Amino acid sequence: MKRILFFVLLVFFTLEVPMVFGGEPSTYQIQGLRISQNSDQILIKHGLCIDENDCVEKQLMFFKSASSGLMLSVYGISDVGAISEIIGICLDEYGRNAKRISIEVKVYREKHEETRGLIKSRLISPYIKFYLQGEE
């Protein structure tokens, strides 16, 4: 009986508790997807990708939903026009959400795979940081 109880508690604490208290917040998932899709179109327009699948394969951009908003990371893009249009999309989304969403954009010169790893991720910093503070 003790073994069964131990097993049930073990399963509960390893599967259910992290889902309730941890994990990625999905509050701003729709906004992140909208920014991502519109940004892909900009990258295609500027000739940085052939189509959306190509953008995903090249790992040019990632977004992460946070409790107060979104974090967008852009890799390996030096086209100032494309970057300014992506920031413009973020500004539009900020306004669409009545300034209640925080949006952080970081642009790296390096490709995504060049920034991976514990040491590399600490040594490489973005050359553009843009932050929109959400209002409560």
Work out the radius of gyration.
19 Å
Query: Going across the major beta sheet, what is the strand order?
Result: 1-2-3-4
Q: What is the general shape? A: globular
Percentage of helical residues? 40-55%
Give the SSE string.
HHHEEHEHE
Main pleated sheet: 4 strands, mixed
Return residue spans where pLDDT drops below 50 for at least 5 consecutive residues: 5-23
Q: What is the count of structural domains?
A: 1
- Given the structure, what is the number of helices? 5
Structural class: alpha+beta
Terminal Cα span: 50 Å
Mean pLDDT: 81
Number of strands: 4
Strand content: 15-25%
In short:
It contains five helices and four strands; from the N terminus they run H-H-H-E-E-H-E-H-E. The chain has 136 residues and is an alpha+beta fold. The chain has one domain.
Give your account of this protein's structure:
- It is a single chain.
- With 136 residues, the chain is α+β, with helices and mostly antiparallel strands.
- It has helices at 2-21, 29-45, 52-58, 80-96, 118-123; strands at 61-65, 69-75, 102-108, 128-132.
- Strands 1-2-3-4 form a four-stranded mixed sheet, covered by helices on one side.
- Helix 2 (29-45) runs antiparallel to helix 4 (80-96).
- The longest helix has 20 residues, at 2-21.
- The protein is globular.
- The termini are far apart.
